[in-house]
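Please check this one:

***
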Amino acid sequence: MAFALSINLNKIALLRNSREGNYPSVIEHAKLCLENGVDGITVHPRPDQRHIRPSDCLELKTLLADKPQEFNIEGNPFEAKHGTYPGFIEIIRECKPEQATLVPDQGSQLTSDHGFDLNVSGQPLESIVNKLKSWNIRVSLFMDPDREQIRLAKELGADRIELYTGPFAHAYSLNDADDIFKKHCEAAQYATEIGLGVNAGHDLNLDNMKLYKTLPGLLEVSIGHAFTVDSLQYGMKSTIERYLELCR
């Protein structure tokens, strides 16, 4: 079954931010992705603005406004205004993306590395989820393949979950992914049964996607780091074609 490919442009922004100016341009690379058939653009603006900036989000919203592809903004919903960072929910309010993926990462983290524990975060998240849905934004929660946590995500009002695939990718690199992939399949099946859509992301690449693409009910994958690395080897257009072939 086909599923959507959303390209995360954080690493393009990271490269741009290593020098003065706007080279490489996040917007021009987004255009290249869209022109070559990707289904959406993902960004994850963090408070330290080490890669994607709030201004990038606004420009991408303008770019995508008249296009059929989806805009997905990821981030920690509890990140408040800090310096020139307006706060995650304010970014969402201004941009009104089609999807907001809520992630429990902290500013000190190099990258996202775990899903929500909704026994802890559920109550403060509920009002945020309701607010985003009142803005007609689809809400996805970054989750581990834990049945009980997925049940709580549904009770909270989420529309989708994004399964955290980092541990799967690591196990796959060691040729030891069978058990963890089975857990992901069981989690995805359960999520679908209770009415949640299933997205996935983190460290997915051209190799491990050969297995992960068989996940039951998969609707969307978000790929950024590996996509950028593969683009250095194959060129961006060819890399998009390779990923789309897996998704189709």
